[in-house]
Specification:
With about 270 residues, this protein is an alpha+beta fold. It has 7 helices and 7 strands. The strands form 3 sheets. The protein has a 3-stranded antiparallel sheet with strand order 5-6-7. A hairpin with a 2-residue loop joins strand 5 and strand 6.
Length: about 270
């Protein structure tokens, strides 16, 4: 799936790819799973991406599809272009791969926010005054804090139009088992094989077992949903510290330092 924008609505093209952790055997009768702690070799993937990217860049140059102007105008000369391109094949490109923070369901929910949306939602646009547009963004370099940005209306329109797709352009594509021609055949076979390999789901605990579970509710919530309620919602790394319970406003416990929380009966 192509995702072309960042929080500032500037052009930031990148791809989100959902890849199966294995595949069908050549005879289509069994499922071959990837190893639990290994899926793609990082050095090979890094070299492959570098080669594919630079080859596509070279083809675009040869076809005259690159607009070289300003600080890149000198690269329009073939010799200067070769001197620029050749050393890039010797550089070690950075490839960062890690496991997702949560479950596969969470990953799909995250990607679902972008499948049928463009650039910016209405609620992020705060004002349009004096030919300027003010909108909010999440600054990931500042622990995800919300900030306000004001730009000229013409600049805002320019940024927005960067993400309007050309006519007939397909932003979401399916390959392999998920390709249209395989949905009713290979994909169904894979699902059947995976269902047979999946152990039976554990039975829900009885009421007696639940009563014996005296762990704090946030630990039981983490086991059931995979959501760590004590993780900092801003950075995801810090831990929230539970200091105590706040009693209800009508509680007689509101004494001493907490007395100011008690409703004023005379008002």
């Amino acid at each position: 799936m192509l995702h072309s924008w960042g929080q500032n609505v500037l052009f930031h093209p990148h791809l989100h790819c959902v890849v199966t952790g294995g595949g069908l055997s050549p005879d289509g009768q069994s499922w071959i799973a990837a190893r639990e702690k290994f899926f793609l070799p990082i050095p090979v993937l890094r070299a492959l991406f570098r080669g594919k990217f630079l080859d596509a860049l070279r083809q675009a140059y040869d076809a005259g599809q690159l607009k070289l102007a300003g600080s890149t105008a000198a690269l329009s000369q073939p010799r200067a272009w070769r001197q620029f391109l050749d050393p890039l094949y010797k550089k070690n490109w950075v490839l960062y791969a890690k496991q997702p923070f949560a479950s596969p369901e969470y990953v799909f929910r995250y990607l679902g926010r972008y499948t049928h949306r463009v650039a910016i939602s209405n609620q992020r646009i705060l004002a349009l005054d004096n030919g300027q547009v003010t909108f909010t963004l999440k600054n990931y370099s500042a622990a995800g804090h919300r900030e306000q940005v004001t730009v000229e209306a013409v600049e805002f329109i320019r940024r927005f139009l960067l993400h309007v797709l050309p006519q007939a352009f397909t932003r979401i594509r399916h390959f392999g088992l998920c390709a249209g021609r395989n949905v009713k055949t290979k994909l169904q076979t894979a699902r059947a094989l995976l269902t047979a390999l999946t152990p039976a789901a554990p039975q829900p605990p009885t009421s007696a077992a639940v009563e014996k579970d005296d762990r704090p509710w946030w630990q039981r919530w983490l086991d059931r949903t995979g959501i760590d309620i004590l993780a900092c919602p801003s950075c995801g790394r810090g831990r929230l510290v539970r200091c105590g319970d706040v009693p209800p406003l009508n509680s007689t416990a509101l004494e001493g330092p907490l007395a100011w929380l008690r409703p004023n009966d005379t008002s």
